Amino acid sequence: MSFGYQVLGFGSGGAGPTYAIEFLLIGGGSSGGCGQSAGNQEGGGGGAGGGFYTSTYDEFPEGAVMTVTVGDGGAGHSTAGADGNDGSDSSVSAPGQSTYTATGGGFGGGNSVGGDGGCGGGGGSNLPSPIAGGLGNTPSLSPSQGYDGGEGHGSGQGASGGGAGAVGSDGGTGGGGNGRASSITGSAITYAGGGGGGQPHGGGGRPGGSGGGGTGGRQYSHTTTNGTDALGGGGGAGGVGGSYGSGTGGKGVVIIKMLDGDYSGTTTGSPTITTGQDPGGAYTVVKFTGTGSYTA
């Protein structure tokens, strides 16, 4: 599944040369929830950062400044039964124009409901009742930013977080929701996979979704992994017991692309710049993994 496209309305901004830009926005992934020793209740996996991929045929004015914000991943922690932390938003904006935002992932539940976000966090486990996952695509955008987290089971199995391409699995049934692929850099890369839920006993925790989702922990074992930075993956759930922390969410990313001949060379921050990219070896790709700007 690939990201959808939208036409942007930056406008001409006055007289002078204009050209086309396309970009990929991925919000920061959330961290997973922590398991709780009482009743062997496992945490839910973190939701991936929301994916918002756009393509424009509008005219972006020469001299206009595009401000780039890259969302951070939610911090992990080791407090028994605690919820994870949301990821933060990624965005691009230009003076006098609309701001476009990819929402951070919703937190994985400790022994509670998962958080809403670009992709929803997995529900934790709280005997005897199932616990709902968080909602994805919150706030609602079209095409969708991402999917819901799974439902945690009362048997102690935490659910997995949603990804940009699929829902997170319910507790005990599978892993984090898979992400979506984009070829904006010239080759297909999958972004925004959901974090895996916790497993009460036997084997490892639930796997993260493709696109940087972290693996969940299992009972009294610190096998949890973080979401992958620059992919916006959700962090894995913490294993049962307060000493086994949840995985941190992966940082988001903003990638912009234009024809080589249109690239001005004026940036702030520390983006990675690659010229001669596909299609046709004629495009410049500017990849931001931290806050910065691009001046047309």
Q: What is this entry, summarized?
A:
This protein is mainly beta and 296 residues long. The chain has strands spanning 18-19, 22-26, 51-55, 60-61, 65-69, 90-93, 100-102, 180-182, 189-191, 253-259, 266-268, 272-277, 283-288, 292-295.
In words, what does this structure look like?
There is one protein chain. The protein is mainly β and 296 residues long. The protein has one domain (1-296). Helices cover 0% and strands 20% of the residues. The protein has no helices and 14 strands. It has strands spanning 18-19, 22-26, 51-55, 60-61, 65-69, 90-93, 100-102, 180-182, 189-191, 253-259, 266-268, 272-277, 283-288, 292-295. The strands form 4 sheets. The protein has a 5-stranded antiparallel sheet with strand order 3-2-10-13-12, with no helix packed on it. A 5-stranded antiparallel sheet has the order 7-6-5-14-11, with no helix packed on it. The protein is elongated, with a radius of gyration of 19 Å.
